[in-house]
């Protein structure tokens, strides 16, 4: 049952609204002024607050502002006998869901309350989904190298600094990029990923910046590129060391000017993106060999995070293996299997040239091929 609070200094208004809302099946509480209303909202949990604007001790706009500053997700519907545009605009600026005038139209009131409750549900569902995604992309391990990675993520996530993530294939560079995005101020906006190694050099510019209709043979319609798709959010350029020099020049310009131009177009389009790049190459060596622009390297590497290979953090293998056992059991709808201690020790001793990705594949193979308890002999046979 949705829980509502009516904050109004007029007893008759509170009583009338309460009768209507309780008749509709809502759980309703009252506050006689702004000060009492704010105290109840901060201490309780309400889906919707019907809040008068003009009240003694504290007006409704201040209640709205302070509840928001406290992180409350209550949706505010502001009510006022003074139905002027200024009040409505100010209420909206401060985060009100809606603004209605006294005496409120019954149908309008009930529709507004229902919509506000739906908004509260959506906010809660979004938070739950983000927690699930965050857990899905959680970086597993307590070794010193991985602790350093986590600490750096926590420091840089809330900033706008560009980040270059280095490390071998399969070590978890993409996971680091997702963590930075999800912990940052742009988490509610899109994270757009581009695998620079998977796109032919002649198509990478169109992929990144888009193209206009007729820009080249086969361009039958206008296309929006990844920079525009990521506007307001984060653009993750994976394996940027494989990007062509001509595309590097355009990326550099986009970072310098926050503008892009579609292939075949002449209009400059302003974009607001945070760029995170990753590579398995030694970019300084690539610079020396003329394969990578030094000025772009310095633009991208404000913060450098190195993800170590699994062979340098073998103490994390048991924790990673346990996570994969649980994940795979959930995917297959089967009981979670157990790896015997001797088998786990042997897993830790393996070279893991494919890093975390290889470990995940090995654990999945063991789950499929072995019984409830995975033995040392199983690991020797299938790892």
Give the SSE order as H and E letters.
Answer: EHEHEHEHEHHEHEHHEHEEEHHEHEHHEH
Cα gyration radius (Å): 28 Å
Would you identify the regions where 5 or more consecutive residues have pLDDT less than 50?
A: none
What's the total helix number?
16
**What is the domain tally?**
3
How many runs of DSSP E, i.e. beta strands?
14
Shape: globular
Going by CATH, the architecture of the largest domain would be: 3-Layer(aba) Sandwich
If you consult CATH, what is the topology of the largest domain?
Rossmann fold
Helix content: 40-55%
Q: What is the level 1 CATH name of the largest domain?
A: Alpha Beta
β-sheet strand percentage: 15-25%
Give me the side-by-side strand order of the main sheet.
Answer: 2-1-3-4-5
**Which class of secondary structure composition applies to the elements?**
alpha/beta
CATH superfamily of the largest domain: P-loop containing nucleotide triphosphate hydrolases
The largest sheet is: 5 strands, parallel
Mean pLDDT: 90
State the distance separating the first and last CA atoms: 53 Å
Keywords: ATP-binding, Nucleotide-binding, Phosphoprotein
GO biological process, one term: regulation of DNA-templated transcription
Pfam family, one: AAA_lid_14
Domain Response regulatory: 3-117
């Amino acid at each position: 049952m949705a829980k509502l609070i009516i904050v109004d200094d007029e007893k008759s208004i509170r009583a009338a609204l309460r009768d209507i809302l309780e008749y509709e099946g809502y759980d309703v509480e009252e506050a006689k002024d702004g000060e009492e209303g704010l105290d109840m909202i901060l201490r309780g949990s309400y889906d919707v607050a019907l809040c008068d604007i003009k009240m003694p001790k504290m007006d409704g706009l201040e209640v709205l502002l302070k509840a928001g500053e406290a992180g409350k997700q209550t949706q505010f519907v502001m009510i006022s006998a003074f139905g002027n545009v200024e009040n409505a605009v100010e209420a909206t600026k401060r985060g009100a869901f809606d603004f209605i005038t006294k005496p409120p139209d019954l149908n309008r009131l009930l529709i507004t309350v229902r919509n506000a409750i739906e908004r509260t549900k959506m906010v809660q569902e979004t938070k739950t989904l983000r927690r699930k995604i965050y857990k899905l992309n959680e970086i597993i391990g307590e070794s010193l190298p991985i602790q350093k990675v986590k600490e750096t993520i926590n420091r840089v996530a809330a900033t706008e600094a560009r980040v270059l993530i280095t490390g071998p294939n399969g070590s978890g560079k993409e996971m680091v990029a997702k963590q930075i995005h999800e912990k940052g101020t742009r988490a509610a906006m899109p994270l757009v990923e581009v695998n620079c190694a998977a796109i032919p050099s002649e198509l990478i510019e169109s992929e990144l910046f888009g193209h206009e209709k007729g820009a080249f043979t086969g361009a039958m319609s206008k296309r929006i590129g990844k920079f525009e798709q990521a506007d307001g959010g984060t653009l993750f350029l994976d394996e940027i060391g494989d990007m062509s020099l001509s595309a590097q020049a355009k990326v550099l310009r986009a970072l310098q000017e926050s503008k892009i131009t579609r292939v075949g177009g002449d209009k400059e389009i302003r974009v607001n993106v945070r760029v995170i790049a990753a590579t398995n190459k030694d970019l300084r060596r690539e610079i020396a060999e003329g394969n990578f622009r030094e000025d772009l390297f310095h633009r991208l590497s404000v913060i450098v995070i190195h993800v170590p290979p699994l062979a340098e953090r073998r103490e994390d293998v048991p924790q990673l293996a346990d996570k994969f056992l649980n994940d795979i059991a959930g995917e297959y709808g089967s009981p979670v299997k157990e790896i015997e201690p001797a088998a786990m020790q042997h897993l830790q001793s393996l070279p893991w040239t494919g890093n975390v990705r290889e470990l995940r594949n090995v654990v999945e193979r063991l789950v499929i091929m072995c019984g409830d308890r995975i033995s040392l002999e199983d690991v020797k046979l299938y790892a």
